[in-house]
Records
---
Amino acid sequence: MDKSGIKVCVGLSGGVDSSVAAYLLKQEGYDVFAMFMQNWHDADPTLHGDCEWEEDRFVAEMVARKIGIPLYFVDLSKQYRQRVVDYMFDEYAKGRTPNPDVLCNREIKFDAFLEVALKYGADYVATGHYCRKEILRDATNDKNEIYRILEGSDPNKDQTYFLCQLGQEQLSRALFPIGHLTKPEVRRIAKEAELPSAEKKDSQGICFVGKVDLPTFLKQKLEPKEGRIVEVFEPWYLQDGLYIWQQECLDSLLKEGASLERTVRYAPEEKVLTSDGKPLGESPYSDDAIAALDNGSLEKLSRPLNYDIQFETESYRSGKRHVKKTRIKENPFGRIVGEHEGAQFYTIGQRKGLGVGGHALPVFVISTDTQSNIVYVGEGHSHKGLSRFCLKISQEEIHWIRPDLVMRPGEIRRYRLRIRYRQPLQGATLIMRESGLYILFDQAQRGISPGQFAVWYDSDEMIGSGPIQA
């Protein structure tokens, strides 16, 4: 097939992955050109990180010259601020945990950037993501094509998670030239081709901004406000009606002889991110029992716990002069262990930056209340507040990559899921109802936070995604 008439625009960032993507396309005979995006300005302290765009642009220019392709510069900082940065501030202000990289791909790389590339005459846009794309024929109409997005071949570099909000139109214009390669293979190709980016380290931090101190970043727009850090004790769970009901409900859904470990057993995250060819395990739950749950019960099962611990004060006499003072009375359910500068600056599962000492085990955020400006914490990896089994995605926020796989109300399916990029895939049951999609995991999940994207897979194919409601 003669590819010289097919024009491809590569998003050249100056990194090794996009450089090799451009190189391989050129080698295959495509008519290749590149664009370098500027998505922020150094004059704007809000978006100033360690990743200097001038250096990246310089490397991108050298790569383009080495490969022998044109390079254009495009300023998308206005779109980036409106669609990604403002979204981040808004989400954190609500006490949610956004993923800017997911939005950057949906709103910038495969929307604003794609629009400019098409104006330059591109037929496709290519990126250096570790993922693969396949084309199927629509069984109902042989002329229609259905695009599948598959895990990358490198089990430790799969990046489909970041592309979980793409649709058929965007995928029809997308190419992923390095998805079949491993990272060491990409490095080897870059070195053999003597690309200037061959030894360049991978970028970290916020998409196209770099490694930024998140609290400092957020304080550009979100006003600090002192509040309490409250530690939650074990007795709180023994008396909380919602927690007790949820545990009983989970028991009622189990197959005969099945059991659940109620808290996440701590272990460093595995390196294998992909399905790795392993079959999806059997569910511990009964489909009949799940189907019998009414919408109200599913809603209740997916609800996060509400830590409303009240503290009372008492008077006492101190010292030889018996000076009258007040103190907070001991509470069997919790205690105030510190102060913070704003609940919106913390996320569930966070350990660093709390400044809470005097504990034998690590202390983690288990909940944030931005209305009352309280951060709730728990001691130890196995603290009950870190673990949940069920979450919900609102009906209007469910995204299906393939329209032919959309679930209907009442339908139940088994998929693998992850709720963060580096998390190994987890077995789960998806339950579709009129009010939304409910996800019931086979095992307790650590640090489920509203705003995170839950992404589901069938074998090595990414099927859909949506932000966690609460």
---
Amino acid sequence: MNPKRKAPTPIIDNLEFIGNPFKRQSFNSAVYLVAPVSGTDVDLEYALKFLYSYNGSTATFNSYRREIERLLQWSWHINETSVLALKREHIEEFIKFCFNPPKAWIGIKNVARFKSKDGTRIVNTGWRPYVVTVSKTDSKKGVVPDPKSFCPSQSSIKATFTAVSSFYDHLIQENLVDSNPVALIKQKSKFIRKEQTKPVVRRISNIQWDYVLEVVERLADEDPEQYERSLFVMNCLFAMYLRISELVADERSNPVMGDFKKDHDNNWWLHVTGKGNKSRTVTVCNDMLSALKRYRKYQGLSTYPAVGEQTPMIPKLKGAGPVTSTRQIRRLVQDCFDAAYEQMKADGLGDDAAELRSATVHWLRHTGISEDVKSRPREHVRDDAGHASMATTDRYIDSDLRERHASGREKRVKDI
């Protein structure tokens, strides 16, 4: 059968199931292929070894696995060759393929590659290498994802270039290829647009945030068991602009109350392990400190965290231990957004509330940074946010846009 008419079989399982590839004696790629392709056992071996090197970050592993698996699927099924034989022109063909994959390769929802049955990992037949999605707003309107409308974002294509290039750098170090075909593509602008202006920072408005906080505070007063944790999470995301991954326990970090620490000047800081496994300290403002004290009072804890206290920062509502899934935090935040949206609508502010329908958790981080950068020194905001460079922080400064528009607002098109 034409490989474009049939969905390929998933290749690489989750990190906890693939084991340590450096300890394996053999790699059998035949199970993933209909017809034999020379060299795929080596492809599989070094793909797994490359990905295993990111076992310290599930997010990075999952991101790179997605891109490397797509490359393997295309190389084996469409190009019918080993990835070791791919040249610059082949990578360009692969990127073009990513823009317009066969409909049979496109799913309408994210599903796991494999699932467990009777103690055995089996293929999930609903998995596809590519997935088409619709926005949260369209989904709530009943819009259904359509494979015909698949179009990768610019960030997705950039991620493909990054992962595949890193993979070939790894193959060079293993003396399996002589050059990196991705690096040889001189005109990546054919695939990636260069933006002249700063990307728009997605954030909620001040009135939206005021409503969110007011509504969640009221809910916490009415039903503390359900909403005190939500109120604390919303304050963490906005006041300290934490990433969602910095609130949950994973193999990289386990956020606990003892991560809030007071220095010799009686200033409070939150010690965070963030993106790229980098540690940083975040300023705990007075309002955030008040939110912390309120939450700890509800939990029956001391007013302030003790040195080395191991109480989970964000505990599960049911059962013991910390929250380990970002999905739970996303759902919690969405519930807060939905409640604020309904209140704004009831108060006759439906138009102002509309954007809350499409807002995501990360918008709170953007909002907090955007507000702080108006009044705090940029380098202070940069360090609290964990930005690698000032250029990233500068994305949140929109004063130049306001001035630019003000200078052009009154320009004349014709003389009167």
